[in-house]
Amino acid sequence: MLRGFYTAASGMIAQQRNQEMISNNLANVNTPGFKADQATLRSFPELLMKQMGTKSVPTTNGLQLKENRTIGSLSTGVYAQESIPNFQQGPIRETGIITDLAIVDGEKPEEMGGIFFSVANDNGDIRYTRNGNFTVDGEGFLTTNEGHYVLDQAGNPIQTNGLDFVVTTNGMVQFEDGNALLGIVYIANANDLIKEGNLLSADEAGVEAEDPATAGANFSVLQQTLESSNVNPLQAMTEMMQAYRTFEQNQRVLKTYDESMGKAVNEIGRLG
Length: 272
Known about the structure:
Structural class: alpha+beta
Order of helices and strands: HEEEEEEEEEEEEEEEEEHEEH
Number of strands: 19
Number of helices: 3
Helix content: 25-40%
Strand content: 25-35%
């Protein structure tokens, strides 16, 4: 009976975390370039049960039950293993703002591959984003709304000297004093990226950023447009209701176990 408490409680905790993830998706439904998270639920490691310390006894069909025989496996609950971003292309919308850029995915050599803008975080380390809602700071550098420098192909900040610039479909930023190629990269398995606030980190071992042309990935960059969040509000609300109902079901199971335990302690225990 005690094992049932843990099984029901683990289901409640898993659905609570799933609910938090879905709520975060809905909160970012209007965030440009946001990729919805998907929860992966799995069971705890199963236990292999054996019958221990018993004697061989005859059965109705004449067979003998062997000592220490295997009974079978027993699952001990469920947990939210991780959340995986869905890197499917979000809708593209026009904004009319010069500093807004959107990456439009073309053919990619890997199904899980992703194409990203390169930016520098507060420590100067390279990070990646699909949010092209950029601006130009007081020094004339192209930055994200959080103030992170947008990098060129060489890993340097892009100096536009103002808003008078044009971005071609291949990512070339053309301004009065010259041009710079946006640091757009391809990552074969985007699921290995780690979220750091509004940015993505590739610090995990085995994650390498490649030149899209070298990797065989096709894309185009559109100016005065943004990639919207790929969160589907209707689907997210449906998933939230399902998570809530599953949580309630586990809650009722837990309450039933609690009532049974109360009877065992307060009523059956007094019979002796």
